[in-house]
Amino acid sequence: LVGEEASSYLSIIKNKNIAIFASSVFFFHLGNAAVLPLLSQVVAIDSGRAGIPYTCANIAIAQVTSILAIWGMGHALKKGIPYKVSLIVGYFIAVPIRCFLIVLLLKVWPNIYALLAMQIFDGVGVGAFGLSLVVITKALTEGTGRFGFTLGFIITSWMIGAALSNLLFGYIANISYIWAFISLGITGCVSVVLASFLDVKDHGQEKVEA
């Protein structure tokens, strides 16, 4: 802001929409972060030394797909798709849908290559989230002068969720991989529900909320 006083840090933290967004990011990463390492463990169980290449493939598939997802979602946003829609699509594809399909495959057809293909959903979802993170934060902080602080606050929620994900669902995986993936999928659904309550103005519409 030029010639105006920036909003207080407390007002940013107390802002309802920013709190909802940060909470949705927390639950998204709580449900998402442990999926890749647990999936890598599943495909490596009977693979011997091939477990390491399979793990690398898991990561590579997601990364390449995320690049394409960001490119496609960027074009969609330019054409007028609401910011909230891109966020919800990313959340839903990356965790609930992916975890459901992983559980289905483990029960019906535990093929290694089919399981690896599930990382396509991770790439699409995380790519959509990565783009939405910046544009939604910008829209929510329009006129506050606190974009950097707010982005840091939301990324902190991300990091906490990711750390707890591996801790909590790693314990569940010691009992059952199936139940770990089911629990992760349910957790991901919480992020979708929270995002649906987000009130964010799109494509240059003014958003000023104390």
Sequence-ordered SSE layout with sheet pairings:
Blueprint: H1 9-14, H2 16-32, H3 35-44, H4 51-78, H5 83-108, H6 112-117, H7 119-140, H8 147-175, H9 177-196
Helix pairs in contact: 2-8, 2-9, 3-4, 4-7, 5-7, 5-9, 8-9
Q: What's the overall geometry?
A: elongated
Number of helices: 9
Low-confidence stretches at least 5 residues in length (pLDDT < 50)? 206-210
Strands, count:
0
Short summary of the structure?
With 210 residues, the chain is an all-alpha fold. It has helices spanning 9-14, 16-32, 35-44, 51-78, 83-108, 112-117, 119-140, 147-175, 177-196. The two termini are 15 Å apart.
Task: Describe the protein in words.
With 210 residues, this protein is mainly α. Helix content is 78%, strand content 0%. The chain contains 9 helices and no strands. The protein is elongated, with a radius of gyration of 18 Å.
Features:
single chain, 210 residues, mainly alpha, 9 helices, disordered C terminus
